[in-house]
Amino acid sequence: MAKDERTLILIRGPSGVGKTSAGRALAARLGYKFIDEDEVRHLFKGDCLCAGAFDFAVEQMKKMTRSGSFVVAGCFMDKHCVDKLAPDEVFLLTAHLPTLFVRNRGMPVGMQMAEERIRYLHDTMEKFGGEKVIDTEDKTLEQVVDELYQIHTCM
Question: Residue 131's domain is classified under what CATH number?
Fold first, then answer.
C-alpha cells in the first residue's frame, strides 16, 4: 500500500448487535487497524453522549484514519458523521429487538442501556439506506465475520 492510500470499513448498528466484536475480528483477519468509536468518544471531556462528544469522536477518527487500513465500529446514527469519515464501505449489523435486549443484559453494568434507548437506536439505525446489511440473529461471531469478509473481498 502506498503511503497515502487509505481503506476504511465502517460497521454500524445498535447496542448489542456485535459490531465491536465483529469489527475487531474482521480487522485482525484483514490485517487492518481497529477503532472503537465508543472508546474515542469517551475521551471527550464531558457528557460522552452529547452531540459534542460525537462530533469530537468523528474529528479524532478523521485524523486517525488519514492513511492506512481500518475497520471502525460504532453506532453512527447521524449520516453526516458517516459521510465526514468517507468510508469505502459501510455495513449495518442488525438483530431483532428481543435479542438485543438479552445481549444488553449480558453486558457489564456500566455499559447496559435502557430498553427504550435500544429500541430507539434499533429503529433509527435502519433509516440511512445504502449500507450492506447483515442480520446477526442466530449467527455466531465467526459466521458474521465470514459474511463481512466475503462481501468486502468481493467488492
Answer: 3.40.50.300
